[in-house]
Specification:
Elements: H1 2-16, H2 19-40, H3 54-74, H4 77-82, H5 84-101, E1 112-114, E2 117-119, H6 121-137, H7 151-167, H8 171-175, H9 180-186, H10 191-210, H11 222-242, H12 248-266, H13 274-295, H14 299-325, H15 328-337, H16 349-360, H17 372-375, H18 387-419, H19 424-448, H20 466-490
Antiparallel strand pairs: 1-2
Helix pairs in contact: 1-20, 2-3, 2-18, 3-20, 5-6, 5-7, 6-7, 6-19, 6-20, 9-19, 10-11, 10-14, 11-12, 11-13, 11-14, 13-14, 16-18, 18-19, 19-20
Amino acid sequence: MLYSMRASRTGNIWQHVDWLTIGMFVLLAVFGWLNIYGASYTFDQTSIFDFSNRAGKQFTWMMGSLFIGMVLLLIDYKTYDVLAYLAYGAMLLLLLATPFLAHDIKGSMSWISLGPVSLQPAEFAKCIVALAVAKYMGRYEYKIRTWRDLIVPFALIGVPALIIMILQKETGSALVFTAFLLVFYRQGMSGYVLWMGVAAVALFIISIRFGAVSVPLGTGSVGILTCMLLLTAVEIYFICKEHWMRYQALILVGSVVLIYSIFLIINIWIPMPFDWISMGIVMALVVYSIIIGIYWRKLMLVLVALFTLFCIGYTHACDFVFQKVLQPHQRIRIEVLLGMKEDPAGAGYNVNQARIAIGSGRFFGKGYLNGTQTKLQFVPEQDTDFIFCTVGEEWGFVGSIGVLLLYLSFILRLIFIAERQRNVSTRIYAYAVASIFLFHLTINVGMVLGLLPVIGIPLPFFSYGGSSLWGFTMLLFILLRLDAARMEQLN
């Protein structure tokens, strides 16, 4: 009886597993493998299965990923929930031990050598963190009502991210954990939290890019002045939104314009420090927001005022963080991206060569194995972080769009799987998987095109490497196992 029940459950696994998603996975992995061969191909090379080159090694990783996927599908779905916290604790210990076991590879201490191969534990951490977050937030009594309800989820993603970023010096892998913010938003987190993140990035970019630019009239920094004007607009918006009175917006905007006009006139005779003047205006609006927020019991106004105070200090601290906290190679990458510095032979070399390779592919590409930029090794890391430039050169605009559409279909399929879940924990895990894949795709393609700074994260299923391929495989096939359990849960 017990055996027949087990056999029945096993039959249900293969009957209800999402084969369409597996088909997309295989298609992406095989096409990625072909492009790795194209990126590392030399004219005296005869076989794609030559295990002395990267394409042959990637084939081994692919076979291993298929084996891992099948094993994950055969494990009882309840096991993933039962062992989530235990695996999370073990993962933290491994991440802490990694810097002491790893060798320094381009400044990173995140790779552990196991005989002839090296593995990066940070790639597997994403899957385990997703399971832990899903288990915690999937509890029946859990709801996001206040900011206190987000303390534990933020800690679950923040602790491993800090270990990876600070101890292992792997910024790219650490930033991937910000993808979980989309999961929190889907579960009820206020959209204001996402806007706070966008505001922090915007203020950092403006203060760094224009911090050294002097105000044309008077004295001060264009960066600081611009940031303060943005904060002024935010304060006026929320004051009018939360405590609407007739003509209030007109009065506030008119008052701000009048103050600036008066100081502009005074500036004719006496140079005015407009960044300090703008900061004083913001502080006056903050005080006003707190007073009316307390008097009219509008908590949002008080919170916005406190966030504005934080932004004022944050804006002035950005230069210190940029100069003293970031590593030299990180600073130069940001400076090149923002157009503050030209370094075509240094930090900007990878991106410039990637653009040349993609542009040379034109509409239909040069043809498979005919990419001159990749054959002549002009693009560094062309089979790992910059694998997409091989796609652009050999397959052209049409091939690049085809790959992006396949990724889009894959991510939309993951969202569809998430929405059909009856179990809250599984739905949260599914959204975590979709968010991680979306983050990797956006950042990797963005940095290859020069739209985002180079932070070094792989393109899912395309970039060479066993750790990333196996990590993505674990993410996906655990989801497929949990999804296949929907019908078992009904029985």
